[in-house]
Amino acid sequence: MNRFTILLLMLFAVISGCQILPAKNEHRQIDELDALRSLNEYDKALARARQLKNYFNTPTHKKLLQDVRSEADAYDEQQASKVQAKIIEQDWGGAYKLLNESLRKYSGGEKIQAAEREFINRNAVSLRELYARMLLAKAEWLLQSEKIQQAINATQVREKPESSNILPSPERKAIAQQLFDFGKAAYNEGNLNLANDLYTMSDRLDPTLDIGRARAQLDQLRYQRIQEQQQVQQAQQQKTRLQTQRRIKKLSNETEEYLRTGDLVAARVWLSKLRATDRHSKEYEKLRKKLTEKMSSRIDTMIQRGNTLYSNNRYEEAILVWKNALELDPNNSKIQANIARAERILKRLNELERRESNSDAAQQR
């Protein structure tokens, strides 16, 4: 009976996955967990957090496990982004090193695993392209060698004409077939320029190789891409036109509003923005004429008002009015001359007043 009871207890322990973690060691276990988290060792940290949660099964330990999972997810996203950046830069060595480190610390990261798959695929594509370029160079060398050999043969008298090919025909056909196969792979990967180079060289090496269908598919896909690019460009142009039209309308409305309220300085600022957006628009030309007319009318009015004040010996007020007019037309030489003349007279009057004041003071003494 005792043996049976012991077996049941052992079976229960195995099924429930209980670990022997004495309560007195809880703080030590949590400290070790924190150390693993600080080192980004999330495989080990998650295992330790699950162990604590399964043994103690309290809300605190459940939350602890959730916190570690959240940190692991953030680490997963961060490291995957870094790997993606290395892949874009084609820094294959850096990407490989970063992937190894990330997977060692958190092998369960889904985004890191996805980055690893992309790394393998992109790296394989780059290697295939490199080999294809080397094969193209080899084929080009073969054709050039044949031309040189033909030139040599033409200068020698031989009883039997030699073959124009340095390599046996089967070997040349094998290279042409390799080029064709790499061309299909490049086509499937969307590298149309490389596919075109490979198909062209394959046809030069072995004209009997039937690549007409492959070339037709390539030309069709290239035509589709050109159409798609044109559509994207047209859509972008349309979007730009709509944005420009909306901006012109906004700037025109603002300028109209300031013209209506009589704030000509603000109207001029908004009109300059409209000019920078589209100086050839009908709205700009219409508002420019309207602003010019209002400016001219107001400046003439202010000049006349200043003249009247000047005639009545109210020089300071005249200067103030003319300066306000000068803000509307800073390059107006007539207004500048009026201000200068009034300031000279005002200066003389102030000097005479000061002399008279000094003379009265002397007489009083």
How would you characterize the overall build of this protein?
The protein is 84% helix and 0% strand. With 365 residues, the protein is mainly α. Among the domains are: 92 residues; 127 residues, Serine Threonine Protein Phosphatase 5, Tetratricopeptide repeat (Alpha Horseshoe), CATH 1.25.40. The longest helix is centred in the middle third of the chain and has 50 residues. The protein is flat and about 125 Å long. The termini are far apart. About 4% of the residues have low confidence.
CATH-derived architecture of the domain at 238-364:
Alpha Horseshoe
Q: Average pLDDT, to the nearest integer?
A: 83
Q: Return the CATH class of the domain at 238-364.
A: Mainly Alpha
**Whole-angstrom Rg:** 44 Å
Say what oligomer this is.
single chain
Structural class category: mainly alpha
List keywords for this structure.
Serine Threonine Protein Phosphatase 5, Tetratricopeptide repeat, mainly alpha
How do the helices and strands line up, and which of them pair or pack?
Layout: H1 2-16, H2 26-38, H3 42-56, H4 59-88, H5 92-105, H6 110-154, H7 169-188, H8 192-205, H9 212-261, H10 264-277, H11 282-311, H12 315-328, H13 333-364
Helix pairs in contact: 2-3, 3-4, 4-5, 4-6, 5-6, 6-7, 6-8, 7-8, 8-9, 9-10, 9-11, 10-11, 11-12, 12-13
Short description:
With 365 residues, this protein is mainly α. It has helices spanning 2-16, 26-38, 42-56, 59-88, 92-105, 110-154, 169-188, 192-205, 212-261, 264-277, 282-311, 315-328, 333-364.
